[in-house]
Design brief:
heterodimer; A: 299 residues; alpha+beta; Muramoyl-pentapeptide Carboxypeptidase, domain 2; 2 domains; 4-stranded antiparallel β-sheet; 14 helices; 5 strands; 58% helix; B: 166 residues; PH-domain like; Arc Repressor Mutant, subunit A; 7-stranded antiparallel β-sheet; two-stranded antiparallel ribbon; 5 helices; 9 strands; 37% helix
Chain lengths: 299, 166
């Protein structure tokens, strides 16, 4: 293969990758718009204290199926902490699009998809970063989603938790709490564990500093009426159809990549290298003013 | 790849120079991005790209940055522009040679427990804003987190030390 053929093959791969990314991006926009998750379900994920518990939640399973359907591959939770979740992906289709890249992370579209899902569908302000990537020499691609603590507290704890915190603050006897707030003893134990896990309560059930602050300021958002609507997995078939439609549209758009302007056409025109011109700062200013004048003249 | 509108912006001695928003086309080659404006082509070498940001979602607007110059691009189909950004992001040189040293210098002091930006700025004889920006950027790029330097941050420092023969 000579230099030109190599360049052409490289360019063809780049356009093929661009076509696939356009398709994924289009499917992603559609999926995110149609996948709002009710707080009740998000809470189950946030209250999970381990990755295995998190994997059993409906929202996690839905997210995995959704991402797979969009074309981002299968993600798996490998770590679940209070304010961050780590996802791992083996052999994801996105990393395969960047075969010419070595020593760099490449799967930005997956980290952005994770952030969008957490922000727009779970309503938790979050940032997602790819921390390991097969293209930078790691065994797997690993993504970390950092969630805003205040938003996590807002969704993870509900009115029953608030009542428990109030009882603990007042020094109530633990044994009296279930009957006074109408829950079973087992549920109280489960909720107390969660509150300890979130550093609201100490082991002796007294309020930590975080607990006191939460009690003082967190009440307002607990008192807000929680939105309740049907979870998106109930209409998964509708979402799948929308994803398929948007993918077909994106595919049609991508076909235009095949009718690209030829390099000869560029060579026949006047080419201004912006990087070089920008380095010659003042002369570029002249170039800009010349371009402006030329445009005015033509108009 | 798309009918686009684009603008070229440059700061020349505190004055913003701006080719107004122009109708055109965007063309991707193996090593460059071209913008067409009639018979004139503007070329941006991929290796000079410093960042590509989404500056507006509706209408979709991307900003390409090369040294001392920005090109703003507005396209009809958001997914095409965003996909282009994802395609090009890994090609962007993460740090310019002249940015590594100050970033490493700031990170070294920060990792030694000097948390105040003023103290770091005084030691490095630079401005607090510069230190703050470098710390923000190193966090966004995963060089540090609340627990300290990340593996990537440590690698960057080690790499510079090896280059210097330390």
């Amino acid at each position: 293969m000579d230099g030109n053929e190599k360049d052409n093959a490289g360019l063809a791969k780049k356009f093929a990758a661009l076509g696939k990314l356009t398709k994924i991006e289009s499917a992603l926009r559609t999926a995110i718009e149609s996948s709002k998750v009710p707080p009740l379900e998000t809470r189950k994920l946030l209250k999970s204290t381990s990755s295995s518990q998190a994997k059993n939640t409906a929202v996690y399973q839905f997210m995995c199926n959704l991402f797979d359907e969009i074309g981002l591959g299968r993600l798996e939770i490998s770590k679940k902490e209070n304010f961050y979740i780590v996802f791992t992906s083996e052999d994801n289709p996105v990393s395969n699009l960047y075969q010419d890249i070595e020593g760099k992370k490449t799967c930005y579209i997956i980290s952005d998809a994770l952030a969008d899902f957490f922000v727009e569908d779970l309503n938790i302000p979050s940032e997602a970063t790819e921390i390991k990537c097969v293209n930078s020499g790691d065994e797997k691609c690993v993504f970390r989603v950092e969630m805003q603590p205040l938003a996590v507290y807002r969704i993870a704890l509900d009115q029953t938790d608030e009542k428990i915190i109030e009882k603990m603050k007042d020094g109530s006897d633990k044994t009296e709490v279930p009957s006074s707030i109408g829950i079973m003893e087992e549920e109280l134990d489960y909720r107390l564990d969660i509150l300890k896990n979130y550093h609201i309560l100490r082991d002796d059930l007294s309020l930590t500093k975080i607990g006191q602050t939460y009690y003082k300021y967190g009440k307002s958002f607990i008192d807000e009426e929680e939105e309740d609507f049907s979870p998106p997995w109930k209409t998964m078939s509708v979402i799948s159809r929308k994803i398929a439609d948007s993918s077909s549209f994106a595919e049609a758009l991508s076909k235009s990549y095949e009718q690209e302007t030829s390099e000869e056409e560029i060579e026949s025109g006047e080419v201004v290298n912006l990087a070089n011109e920008a380095e010659k700062s003042m002369s570029f200013a002249q170039l800009v003013s010349k371009t402006f004048k030329d445009k005015k003249k033509n108009e | 790849m798309d009918d686009i509108k684009f603008a070229i912006l440059q700061d020349v001695k505190d004055v913003k120079v701006n080719i107004c928003l122009r109708e055109g086309e965007l063309y991707l080659s193996i090593s460059d991005i071209y913008f067409r404006d009639g018979d004139k082509w503007y070329e941006i070498p991929l290796k000079k790209l410093e960042y590509i940001n989404v500056v507006n979602k509706d209408p979709p607007e991307l900003e390409f940055k090369i040294p001392s110059l920005k090109v703003k691009v507005e396209g009809e189909y958001a997914e095409k522009l965003l996909a282009l950004r994802y395609l090009l992001l890994p090609y962007i040189k993460k740090y310019n040679e002249d940015e590594i040293e100050p970033m490493v210098a700031v990170l070294r002091l920060w990792s030694m427990g000097i948390a105040e930006t003023k103290a770091i700025a005084d030691l490095l004889k630079t401005s607090e804003d510069e230190v703050e920006e470098l710390l923000d950027r190193s966090e966004k790029e995963g060089l540090k987190d609340e627990a300290g330097l990340t593996d990537e941050g440590k690698k960057l420092i080690e790499k510079l030390e090896i280059c210097r023969g330390e």
